[in-house]
Amino acid sequence: MESKELAMQIAKLLDSKKATRVKVLKVRDLTVLADYFVIASGTSSTHVKSLAEEVEFQFKEKGVAPIRTEGFNTQNWFILDYANVIVHVFSPDARDYYDLDHLWADGEDVPLDFIEE
Fold first, then answer.
1. Which of 32, 96, 111, 117 has the maximum number of C-beta atoms within 10 A of its C-beta?
2. How far, in Å, CA of 38 to CA of 42, rounded?
3. 3-class DSSP state for residue 117?
4. Separation between Cα atoms, residue 100 and residue 88, nearest integer Å
């Protein structure tokens, strides 16, 4: 699966599970870490954890497993590393604190036409 397609499918899944502030950033030209970041927030620590678990579960079912995961002990910031796509699922406070949106502001926002503003 192409990295953009994977990022978009993950963002769509997160949106369908009521994640807030879902964003896809193209960072390919800024870093060797990944081609895309998917950034989303949950409404509570339970919601954040369930969002991360749902992404991992749904994509394992499709044969796409993360090469690494982080945060399952903290429940404030979960990271799912799919090599060319890195998924960040935050609690609202953690998202504001770490402010990846600002840190990676030079990344290109990918339009998400399935999200209603």
1. 96
2. 13
3. coil
4. 9
Is the pTM higher than 0.85? The answer reads: yes
Given a contact cutoff of 8 angstroms between Cβ atoms, the answer to whether 102 and 24 are in contact is no
User: ∠ CA 67-73-77 to the nearest 5 degrees?
Assistant: 70
The predicted-structure confidence for 61-95, as pLDDT tens digits, reads as follows 999 999 999 987 787 999 999 999 999 999 999 99
Measured in whole angstroms, the distance separating CA 34 from the mean position of its chain's CA atoms is 12
User: What is the bridge-based pairing of β-strands 77-81 and 85-90?
Assistant: antiparallel
* CA-wise closest residue to 70 among 58, 84, 83, 88: 88
Q: What order of strands is seen across the sheet that includes strand 20-26?
A: 68-70, 77-81, 85-90, 36-41, 20-26, 108-109
Q: To which residue do tokens 């997160």 refer?
A: 14
